[in-house]
Amino acid sequence: MAHKLPARGRPAAEVLADLKTFSSADPDYRHGRLWSLAYYQDEDYAAFLGEAYSAFAGANGLNPTVFKSLKRFENEIIEATAALLHGTPEVCGVVTSGGTESCLLAVKTYRDRARQVRGVSRPEMILPVTAHVAWFKASEYFDVKVRLLPLDKHLRADVTQLERLINRNTVMILGSAPEYPHGTIDPIEAFGELALKHGVPLHVDACVGGFILPFMAMNGRKLPLWDYRVPGVTSISADLHKYGYAAKGASTITYRNLDILKHQMFVYQDWPGGVFASPALLGTRPGGAYAAAWAAMQHMGKSGYRDLARRTIKAFDRMRKGIGQIPGLYVMGEPSGPLLGYGSIDPDVNIYAVGDQMDAKGWQINRLQNPDGLHAMITAQHLEVMDAYLCDLRESVATVKAHPELAQAGSAATYGMMAHIPLRGMVKNRVLEMFAGMYKAGGAQMDLHAASGPGGAGGAHPGTLDALVERLAALYVTWKQRRQA
Ligand SMILES: *Cc1c(COP(=O)(O)O)cnc(C)c1O
Question: How far apart are CA 259 and CA 277, in angstroms?
Answer without folding.
Answer: 16
